[in-house]
Amino acid sequence: MARVLVVEDDPFVRSALIRHLTELPGANPALRAAGADPHTVRSVGTALEALREVAHHQFDVVILDLGLPDLDGAEALKMLRGITDVPVIIATARDDETEIVRLLNDGADDYLTKPFSVEHLSARIAAVLRRSRASTRTVPPDRVIQVGGLHIDPLRREAELDGARLDLTRREFDLLAFLAGRPGVVVPRRELLAAVWQQAYGDDQTIDVHLSWLRRKLGETAARPRYLHTLRGVGVKLEPPREAAR
After folding, report:
1. CA 218, CA 162: separation in Å to the nearest integer?
2. 22-57 pLDDT, tens per residue?
3. Segments in the chain forming alpha helices (H)
4. Which residues contact 90 (CB under 8 A, 6 or more apart)?
5. Which DSSP letter does residue 142 get?
6. pTM for the whole thing?
């Protein structure tokens, strides 16, 4: 059972989603066959209400419509990412590939194009939850990792650089911790996708965007790297700065 927040302004769609997400699998043969579980659901119709809900309640996943009356869902996603790492599934009637890629790069975990079946939604929720739960097992949680001035505590999910706390999103932390657990090792992009994103295939741009965010927080750039080094066509490695290695 997951705690789900549905952000949808259409009362009929919202009502249908609530009914299906809270439905016992035994009442629906298709859901039972898919192995779906009933969920605890809260729902709102605006972006501001969604932000208040996320700030005051803990959720396992958010279903976010883009066509909200007070704020476009894409802007709402950015604001959500400013306060929480909860997985977000975009529900949209828009099918423009460029916009979908942008939403994924802005922090969405998945998307569904309307109309979609409840079985499809349930399967996507289950997949996102598996990735989210697996990400906490990316690195062994029983030791603090130190690489140069970086200190990473997988148990507390905290990272520091030269004694200063790093404000990382869930995905940024997972990426940093995975690379730091293999200092000096060039990790292929496919391995990063499998370990950090729980995907066999994906867009390299997703990795590049997260590396760019990480570099910014580590005080470096791709042109002048200190910790994160990209080997074109091969992969990525994390190692201590040269001045720290001397």
Report:
1. 10
2. 875 544 555 444 445 678 999 999 999 999 998 888
3. 11-21, 29-34, 47-56, 73-83, 97-105, 118-135, 170-180, 189-196, 204-218, 242-245
4. 64, 66, 73, 77, 100, 103, 108, 110, 111, 112
5. T
6. 0.57
